[in-house]
Amino acid sequence: MFSRIVTHIRKHVSISAEEEAILTSALELRDIKKKEFLLEAGEVCRENYFINQGCFRLYLITPKGNEQVIQFGIEDWWITEYFSLKTGAPSQYYLQATENAEVVVLKRHLEDELFARIPQLERYFRLVLEKAYSAQLNRIHYIFNLTGEEQYRMMSQKYPEFVQRIPQYMLASFLGITPEFLSMLRSKKD
Amino acid sequence: MFSRIVTHIRKHVSISAEEEAILTSALELRDIKKKEFLLEAGEVCRENYFINQGCFRLYLITPKGNEQVIQFGIEDWWITEYFSLKTGAPSQYYLQATENAEVVVLKRHLEDELFARIPQLERYFRLVLEKAYSAQLNRIHYIFNLTGEEQYRMMSQKYPEFVQRIPQYMLASFLGITPEFLSMLRSKKD
Predict the structure, then answer these.
(1) Interval B48-72 mean pLDDT
(2) In whole angstroms, what is the distance from residue A1 CA to residue A10 CA?
(3) Which of A45, A90, A162, B145 is most buried by its number of CB atoms within 10 A?
(4) Rounded-to-integer distance, Cα A116 and Cα A133, Å
(5) Chain B, nearest residue to A62 by Cα
């Protein structure tokens, strides 16, 4: 269903019923099974995803062979790999569902026409990107200035449900600590 | 002068001569001396800045009293503290000129009216933000996966002029290494 994305858009901008119909006819719903990929390294990213249900992680494989999680996304967030999407260069990243999920797909090649027909979408994505960009700058701040333990405590406090639904080893990778250390932190808390 | 920003906007979107006049009448030019602040921690950020000339750094003071550079900006980049700008919360960051500089100021309280009168600006800022956001995700990737030395080598190769114009201790702070170690890396190269 497109009701969730339409509600999210209307929180930011006004669109008419006619524009809503144009929009939803250009979008696509896709069910994604847990561990399935929306993008794999080496592929060109051609879609942007609004998360209706579920959780995704954007990660890469380091030269040493470890998974490094760069970003998580849950309901009401857009997730994609903008560099590849915009430049057409093959991506270095994997985008994978960590749970059974449903996304709304916005295909790159439909974007320009869609935005021309519904100019308010430009504003919507500008506002969404401002928020996402600002979150990334804060993340850089945390990476430098909080220990893995402090970041975990902060996340547990601010996003307790999110921390519960992420597999432990992925959360450890996001925080830059080992799964063993995270496990120790969790047991200390309980 | 506003010629640089108008050129930059026209690289991304079309605006008419009339729209250009509306835009430039809402903007302001400001000269900033080296080491002067556009924003200090504790203040609310109320402006967005297009860099006409010069270099800026966004940084914070860590609990241990060190400066941590989160971001640099040079000519043709926008720089601000979006979280404070959008939420009205006091900023944790400092935004300071590292050279004598000139910026074009877009005041927050003029933004909505300006964007309503020149809808193409929504698209322009969406495109600018997509690029900035994607650069931050890459930065997170580098912080986790490259050593300070590897990041320095990469920056020296990709942005040699930029590396030259930044004071050494600020570049070290951006890379998460000590000024002494950066000095050693630089002398190794020469």
Answers:
(1) 92
(2) 16
(3) A45
(4) 24
(5) B145
- pLDDT tens-digit map of A12-33: 999 999 999 999 999 999 999 9
Interface confidence, given as ipTM, is 0.88
Tell me how far CA of residue B132 lies from CA of A52, B73, B129, B187, in angstroms. 26, 11, 5, 32
Residue B104, token pair as written in the block: 């074009």
- Sequence-distant (≥ 6) Cβ neighbours of residue A26 within 8 angstroms: A106, A107, A110, A113, A114
Helix, strand, coil fractions of chain B, as percent rounded to 5: 50, 20, 25
What's the pLDDT score for residue A28?
Answer: 97
Q: Is B137 close to A140, i.e. CB distance below 8 A?
A: no
- Return phi, psi of residue B81, to 5°: -120, 90
Neighbours of A22 (CB within 10 A): 14
Count CB atoms within 10 A of the CB of residue A170. Answer: 18
* Contact across the interface for B136 and A141, Cβ inside 8 Å: no
C-alpha–C-alpha distance, residues A145 and A133, integer Å: 19
Q: Domains plus CATH for chain A? A: 3-118 (2.60.120.10)
Q: What is the DSSP string of B48-73?
A: EEEEEES-EEEEEE-TTS-EEEEEEE
pTM of the model: 0.90
Query: And the tokens for B133?
Result: 């956001």
Q: Do B125 and A125 touch (CB under 8 A)?
A: no
- Looking at CA atoms only, how far is residue B133 from chain A in angstroms? 5
Tally the C-alpha atoms within 13 A of residue A34's C-alpha that lie toward its C-beta: 6
